[in-house]
Amino acid sequence: MSPPRPRKRKLMDEQIKLMRERGERLRQAAQSIGITHAAKAAGVPYTTLRDYMNGSEMKLSAVASLARVCGVTLDWLAYGVGETPLSQSPSRPAPQRGGHQIVIPWLDDREEGLRVGKGWLETTLTRPTIAALRLTDVTGDAMAPTLLHGDLVMIDTASTQVQGGALYALKVDETVMLRRLDLRLGGGIRVLADNDRYPPQDLSAEDIQSLKVVGEVVWFGGLPRG
């Protein structure tokens, strides 16, 4: 059996190098929001994501989904085109992982919370209710363009008193929704979605009994919009 031609071997080596570089970019992007969160938000099994980061061949659909939830462009993730797009919006900086860290649990009691820097929390939040903080992620488009599907949201579960116009996590039966609440003149609450496709709902005092305010949204981000 004749040995592989030098040109063919060179092409194979270049392909392996490209796959490894793509895996490193994916690792960088996934670590910016948490690898476990990235896998769940993109619908990619954790073991598959780990293989991708180690240089395995990726499905285009998975690359596109991971690029979206990690807030990077598909061109950058797949081909390294453009600058590293992992900088956060100045108004909503991403949680920093350096220094003394605190684990913020998920609202749905997932096994692994998100580790963030205590200094970042103290400077970012207007009130220091760290023990009451919980995480959830956005599903659907009801709160677009403010919140997009897959965005990360931090909730202060100690703040359940409705203040007009603020964002809240609500629990109806076993479903958690993110909505803007406004107080109505004469009593009751108006439930608002930021997406005009969803009409507002007016709740009477009796209706409110079935609505549980889980807490106020105090931060959202970590997934820059590219």
Question: If you had to describe this structure to a student in words, what would you say it looks like?
Answer:
The relative contact order is 0.13. The strands form two sheets. This protein has a seven-stranded antiparallel beta sheet. The chain has helices at 6-33, 35-42, 46-53, 60-70, 74-79, 118-124, 205-208; strands at residues 101-104, 114-117, 133-137, 152-156, 167-172, 175-183, 189-192, 201-203, 212-221. It is an alpha+beta fold. Strand 5 and strand 6 (175-183) form a beta hairpin. Helix 1 (6-33) packs across helix 2 (35-42) and helix 2 crosses helix 4 (60-70). The protein is built from seven helices and nine strands, in the order αααααββαββββββαβ. The N and C termini lie far apart (50 Å). The protein is 32% helix and 22% strand.
Question: Which secondary structure elements does this structure contain, and how are they paired or packed?
Answer:
Elements: H1 6-33, H2 35-42, H3 46-53, H4 60-70, H5 74-79, E1 101-104, E2 114-117, H6 118-124, E3 133-137, E4 152-156, E5 167-172, E6 175-183, E7 189-192, E8 201-203, H7 205-208, E9 212-221
Antiparallel strand pairs: 1-2, 3-4, 4-9, 5-6, 5-9, 6-7, 7-8
Helix pairs in contact: 1-2, 2-4
The biggest beta sheet is recorded as: 7 strands, antiparallel
Q: Quickly count the helices.
A: 7
User: Strand-residue fraction?
Assistant: 15-25%
Average residue pLDDT: 78
Find the structural class using helix and strand composition: alpha+beta
Question: Which sequence of strands runs across the widest sheet?
Answer: 3-4-9-5-6-7-8
Helix content: 25-40%
Calculate Rg over CA atoms: 21 Å
DSSP strand tally: 9
Shape: elongated
**N-end to C-end Cα span:** 50 Å
SSE pattern, N- to C-terminal:
HHHHHEEHEEEEEEHE
Which regions have little confidence, pLDDT < 50, spanning 5+ residues?
87-92, 222-226
